[in-house]
Amino acid sequence: MFYLIGLGLGDAKDITVRGLEIIKKCDKVLLEGYTSILTVGKEALEEYYGRPLILADRELCESNIDETLKEAKLKDIALLVVGDPLGATTHTDMLLRAKQFGVESQIIHNASIMNAVSCCGLQLYSFGETISIPFWTDSWKPDSFFEKILENYSRNLHTLCLLDIKVKEPTEESLTKKVRQYMDPKFMTVRDAAKQLVQIVDNKPETGITRESLAVGLSRVGAPDQRIAVMSLEKMLHLDLGPPLHSLVIPASKLHPLELDYLEQFR
Hints:
The protein is of the alpha/beta class. Helices cover 31% and strands 19% of the residues. The longest helix is centred in the last third of the chain and has 14 residues, at 190-203.
């Protein structure tokens, strides 16, 4: 059996009872560490689960997963995923590959930022399409994600913005070499995201979203040191919400009175 097990958002104890039972009986347990991260490290998980974990990086999950799936024909193998297992398309692809190889699979769900974002007081049924904001470079500054924010905004829906992370990303120079070299880990903050969004809205003044538009910044959702801040995009340019992971919400133009009341405590 191939198991995809969600770990939740906080620490080692956020695993479900069912998930923990499966981890303890599996022949091999891998920890996916590039689509998201927990607030604790691999060692803390190993101590709580009582067994060693194998780190699964982007290369293994996207290019070399077939060998692991074939191994699951004869063994019980689990891949641990931060949040919910199906929050990233990479894991959906794994399930399709497992089916092609005739490997049975099971999914053990858990909390993810997709539902935990409601901790800020914005109502889940009023969220539109979730978007991802990538790190810009000097030569690459895509803004297609902003169109989806505008589509949600025009329908009076909130937008959850997932912020880019770079974990074990190869350097451009090493892509043509036999030996890969990797960049230091990098995590986008709400300040980084606000900076890019402000550049976009300055170039598109007729959209209805401006520097003064409301934004909600969240950090380390699900952890004891979780933080939430509500302010304009302009003010968010100077906000330090602490360690990763961060998320950003662009609220709808008209908010429910309960949403307004709840948000007020984070201003």
